[in-house]
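Researcher: Re-running this chain for the archive, since the previous output was lost when a drive failed. Same request as before.
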Amino acid sequence: MVQDRSSIQQKHIQWTHASNCKTVVCPLKWPSQNRGQRIIHPESTSAFDQRVTTFGKSSGIKTPSGNNLGPFSKLFYASEAILKQQPLGPARVEKTKQLHEYIKQMEREKSELERHCSKLESECKRLQSVVLQQREGVLGSLRPKWFPKEDRTIQFELTKLQTTMRSWSREYSLADETEIEKVPAAEKNMVIKQLEGYYVQIFTDPFFFIDTRNNNMTGPGSPNMASIYETLMQIDEAEAHIWRSDTGTNSSTGFSFSQRLQELSNSFVDNFITSPARALLRPGTDTDLIQRNMKLRDLYYRAGEIALLLWAQRVHIRCYGQQDLQVFDVDSPMMSAHRLHRLDDDDHRLDGKMVLASIQPAVLAFGNEDAEYYDVSKTWMPAVVLVGNNMGAA
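Model: Regenerated structure tokens:
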């Protein structure tokens, strides 16, 4: 497009850079005799920059300032401003208006899309939160949870187990005293020791439910777990009991635990009926013996469930037998005389006498469910003991 020479004659600058010189066309006049001639002005860059800025100010043009913009950039902005000052034709004005309207329309659509995207993002986050809550709910329902048991609940379960054991003994042991007298004394002593031993096997080992036959190193056996437990207790007793409790809780559900407990029950029954204790068992038919063994198996299975219930608590369990209770004391909460002694609660006739055997060990709990005060104990179940030579004579 041909521009009016008079309108740009005073505003045109052309320069070239050669070495340290600037070639500038004089902006004041454009004589025909030296039209297009270049006049060399050796001046520094800063001086030339100042001339461009001065030219812009004299022309009413605002050029950007700052150290980051050299004369090239300032001249570019000045040229752009000059072109913008040129008159526009009607077609160009209309086209410019249309472009402006189109840009505004695009900006409105962009804003609308941004609001819509914001709503979608909020909805997406809400749905993700719902999914996470639902998933946590499902997993939480499947994940075993630890709940503290009240002392009275535990004492009730232990008492019920004791009653079941006593009923089984009355039903399947020798009823005739003359038959019992025929059993050698050595075998009688072995029976008493084994009765306590089977009970202690479950209630003194917090990891009794772990299969010790695992020799392929895919998981720790009970001895290894007990060693870890003892090591942790030396470092941090409270954390050790919490770890033991969580281990029992996580192992208390599922087919593997039930199967393992069934295997243990079968093993205990087989060992018991082939031990010297068989001398005190009542003979019977094959059907009677099968029924006897099934009931004994159920008894051991229930004992295993209760033992795991106890070991899943934060408290620490200890069992006390004949070696720990050598002298009888009727006022001690840790022991009670066997019913054969017919001893009342305030009867002190047997006090100070030796404890011969513990038919059932005492179960004590140390600490509380907050994993504190492990130096304080409480008796969940007293031991049932035979005292002195007074069995059957009292």
